[in-house]
């Protein structure tokens, strides 16, 4: 069974109902962008994992180290990332003296890198999507591989979805 996350405040009249498939950064940021533009929207986020957040997670090791996992590190110099933090009312933790010792562990295929022919497949997929108005695909599997790309694409996806919903 897929857990369902319901976001948005109850309203007497729901002008728009939206299903977001995937509760990773792209799905959560898209839902946030939609609600910022249309607070009365009813959004259901479908996530197959036990928790939202996708591949991004934070864990405190038994030794007291803060370990970040995910597609890439948080870059506090990227404007869109900082804007999103401000909208959520959170602030990034600054690095302290202990952060001078850093270790990076990676796995093969940990960050989605596009294979030869990806652009052609994406073009074909976008062409097929034209026959399904209201169905929009976003996320780092399609455009960009960084946290910032997910946030920027989420804003663009929300605008596109809302424009489609308004114009029909």
Topology:
Elements: E1 4-7, E2 17-21, H1 25-37, E3 42-46, E4 57-60, E5 66-69, H2 79-88, H3 118-129, H4 147-167
Parallel strand pairs: 2-3
Antiparallel strand pairs: 1-3, 4-5
The CATH topology is given as Rossmann fold
The total domain count is 1
Give the strand tally. 5
Q: Characterize the overall form.
A: globular
Alpha plus pi helix count:
4
Tell me, what is the CATH class? Answer: Alpha Beta
Give the helix/strand class: alpha+beta
User: Which runs of at least 5 residues are low in confidence (pLDDT < 50)?
Assistant: none
Q: What are the secondary-structure elements, in order, as H or E?
A: EEHEEEHHH
Largest sheet, if any? 3 strands, mixed
The residue-averaged pLDDT reads 76
Q: Quick one: CATH superfamily? A: NAD(P)-binding Rossmann-like Domain
Q: Tell me the strand order in the biggest sheet.
A: 1-3-2
Global Rg: 18 Å
**How many angstroms does the end-to-end distance come to?**
32 Å
Give helix % range.
Answer: 25-40%
Residue share in β-strands: 5-15%
* Assigned CATH architecture: 3-Layer(aba) Sandwich
Main traits of this protein?
single chain; 168 residues; alpha+beta; Rossmann fold; 3-stranded mixed beta sheet; two-stranded antiparallel sheet; 4 helices; 33% helix; globular
